[in-house]
């Protein structure tokens, strides 16, 4: 993937950096908060895992209620029963996650392991297909790493369920925070040039 796809060039990039520079303290504060939350999630991975699982449960409950009510409102339309059943299933899964959080944590962890394996296989295959390209090695390496992570999680399952999701959330929060700090520093450097 070219860097230009990730960060626009020209006027759009300048406007974005102007916004970062103008609200530098807000970006800086948010970056620090995200880093601290990420560190907390990494030090207390079970709490972060449980919070993530419960959040997913509540989201599914509200989504299931909304889908079911929408289906009932349109009960005379084609597709009523599939829509209603889909809403009720979403609601049921959300309630199960809330009532049995440990089972939900085990299930989510197993799904993350499968996600690592499948994404790893996709990246590895893509990297091998793009072998002549200069970046194919990174895809292959990322694919192998993802496969190894998936195998590691499955080998340690169910014990990995206690820490995995919380650790991943913590890592993501830390990287998001560092990205905001980096953008703030970059905008400041560009502004002084």
UniProtKB/TrEMBL annotation:
Transmembrane stretches in the record are: 27-48, 54-72, 79-99, 105-122, 134-155, 161-187
* UniProt-listed InterPro entries: Acid_resist_chaperone_HdeD (IPR052712), DUF308_memb (IPR005325)
Q: Which domain of life is it from?
A: Bacteria
**Alphabetized Pfam families for the sequence:** DUF308 (PF03729)
Q: Keyword annotations for this protein?
A: Membrane, Transmembrane, Transmembrane helix
Q: What is this protein called?
A: Membrane protein HdeD
Gene source species: Methylocaldum szegediense
- Lineage, top ranks: Bacteria, Pseudomonadati, Pseudomonadota, Gammaproteobacteria, Methylococcales
